[in-house]
Specification:
The complex is a heterodimer of chains A (276) and B (290). Chain A is mainly α and 276 residues long. Chain A is 78% helix and 0% strand. The longest helix of chain A is centred in the last third of the chain and has 35 residues. Classes of the chains: A mainly alpha (276), B mainly alpha (290).
């Protein structure tokens, strides 16, 4: 057996217990989601359903208001991502292209906003949204998520911007283009990949947020997905687990696929941002 | 736009948005913490340290604080200890490494809320698939009602916390390992160093900045983590799994003790600030030694 083959087998063997534990919840989700209702709460418990019942997903969609929550989540995540990027791109550009007084202080400020998680401020944020009359509105979440994502977005963007060579911009200046015009026609097109990657991770952050949505969104119509699904579990006499697992599966798998595809960019961006 | 002022124009929008959302609530919390507040959140009169003393007089505060320490040390310690060898393996070249990396990273893509909801169902004493699987494997005899007591629920929550924290730590470690030049290992091999000696004398010292960063960022993240405990037990049964964040949430939104909740918020803020300062210190020292 070649050295590489032996190493491959040993690596997979060592990693396999952890992988089983990682994949366990996905198996639970899938097999519960497709079980006929009367088999979910039956003893003795069985992993496999007697028949795979895809109709569970259709029922779940109608009963739980999944579609509405999905739309809310899409809206909040998209709008807050746009909001964060609109302010973060100029800031990251300034950090990577200018030397100026207060650069260090601004970085410190970003670090502090990054450290303060929403949970520490939740009461203050709740009172803020009451004060501006936006309690129970998804728009207040848009603003808050955008603000909390700024530090991460600036961090990621800046580490990518630093890798864009300045020569092209300098050539454009020599041709007589203004700084602003150079940014629009030379810099931004080169920065698109960085912005897309940052946008996707900001989107996922907002998509997954729990405590603020739990606190601000009172009525069922405004619930985002995590809160919608949590509300089906908490404080109910009968919990329809096959519907809930179907909903978590639908909410999880698309994000997991995008994430699996993008994780190498995150590895690179974080490694650059964390040490530089 | 003049180039002297340009950075200011570029930076101020992000500064104002972040400052408004983060500094205003902080100021509001400090007002609440030092005033008598009724349960509807109306500030009545200045009360100095009354709220602080009420918190310091509450045995639940100390229990939650102690459990927060256990939670943070347990999750972060477990995460780092497991993630380092995992990153070493994933850094080697072996068949199917890409797939292995994707699987290890998978828990990161799932929101903590969803993960916790799935585990709440898996841990169900009567119908949960965890009991079923453990019984089939002969690991446990009788089904365990995991979430019925803090003695089983809390360790389970720590284990789940470790599971979802591994991807981030592995990511940081992989970034670090890829920054170590391969030729120093070459040289060590020529000098006859065993793999174990190479790990101890080369990899570990060179990885120290990355271990520090993973450690501190994880401490901050886990210290603030709310969904796993809230979804699984809401701090119960009988407050046996409460940590500071769930205690704070209950004070504010269940018991209507906004003044005391603000005090707990500010205590957490102070602790976070201390950790942050430690972090910036480490980064600066790290930059100097480069």
């Amino acid at each position: 057996m070649s050295k590489r083959a032996r190493r491959s087998i040993i690596s997979w063997l060592v990693l396999s217990p952890l992988m089983v534990v990682i994949l366990f919840p996905f198996a639970v989700m899938f097999f519960t989601a497709v079980k006929p209702a009367d088999e979910v709460l039956a003893t003795p418990t069985a992993w496999l359903p007697s028949t795979i019942r895809w109709a569970n997903f259709v029922e779940m969609w109608q009963v739980t208001g999944f579609g509405r929550a999905l739309l809310n989540s899409l809206y909040v995540s998209t709008a807050s991502t746009l909001g964060a990027l609109i302010v973060a791109v100029p800031a990251a550009y300034a950090l990577s292209r200018f030397e100026f007084k207060g650069k260090g202080a601004y970085r410190q400020f970003l670090l502090i906003t990054q450290m303060l998680s929403p949970i520490v401020l939740v009461l203050g944020l709740f009172r803020l949204s009451v004060a501006v009359g936006l309690l129970d509105s998804v728009n207040v979440l848009v603003m808050i998520y955008a603000a909390f994502n700024i530090a991460f977005a600036v961090w990621m963007l800046q580490s990518y911007f630093a890798t864009i060579p300045r020569d092209l911009e300098e050539a454009a200046w020599l041709e007589g283009a203004s700084r602003f015009r150079t940014v629009i026609i030379v810099f931004l097109p080169l920065a698109v990949p960085a912005m897309v990657v940052t946008a996707i991770f900001t989107f996922i952050n907002s998509w997954n947020e729990f405590v603020l949505a739990l606190t601000m969104l009172r009525s069922a119509e405004s619930h985002t997905l995590p809160i919608k699904i949590f509300s089906l579990v908490a404080g109910r006499y009968t919990v329809e687990w096959h519907h809930i697992m179907g909903a978590t599966l639908l909410a999880t798998v698309p994000v997991a696929i995008i994430f699996g595809w993008l994780q190498r960019y995150l590895v690179r961006g974080l490694a650059l941002g964390a040490v530089k | 736009m003049s180039s002297r002022l340009a950075p200011a124009y570029l930076i101020l929008p992000s500064f104002f948005l972040a400052a408004f959302i983060i500094l205003f609530p902080l100021w509001d919390l400090s007002q609440l913490a030092t005033h008598n507040v009724n349960r509807f959140g109306q500030i009545r009169y200045f009360s100095g340290f009354e709220n602080l003393l009420a918190v310091l007089d509450d045995s639940l505060f100390y229990q939650s604080l102690w459990r927060t320490v256990l939670w943070t040390v347990g999750v972060v310690g477990g995460t780092i200890l497991l993630s380092f060898p995992i990153a070493l393996i994933l850094n080697e070249d072996f068949a199917g490494r890409g797939l292995a990396r994707v699987i290890i990273m998978l828990p990161w893509s799932v929101s903590l809320t969803m993960t916790a909801i799935v585990w709440r169902w898996s841990l169900n004493g009567q119908f949960g698939l965890l009991n079923k699987t453990l019984q089939d494997l002969g690991i446990i005899g009788e089904p365990i009602v995991w979430l019925a007591s803090g003695a089983t629920a809390f360790p389970m929550q720590i284990a789940i916390g470790i599971l979802v924290s591994i991807p981030f730590a592995v990511t940081v470690f992989l970034g670090g390992l890829s920054s170590i030049p391969a030729d120093i290992y070459e040289a060590a091999r020529v000098d006859g160093a065993s793999p174990w000696q190479q790990l101890r004398t080369l990899t570990l010292p060179l990885m120290r900045p990355f271990i520090n960063i993973a450690l501190v960022l994880n401490v901050i993240y886990v210290f603030n983590s709310f969904p796993i405990i809230w979804v699984l037990t809401q701090g119960g049964p009988a407050n046996q799994t409460d940590i500071l964040v769930t205690y704070l949430y209950k004070l504010a939104f269940r018991f209507g003790k906004m003044g005391e909740a603000s005090v707990v918020s500010l205590i957490m803020f102070a602790l976070l600030l201390a950790i942050t300062l430690l972090y910036t210190r480490m980064v600066i020292r790290d930059e100097q030694t480069r």
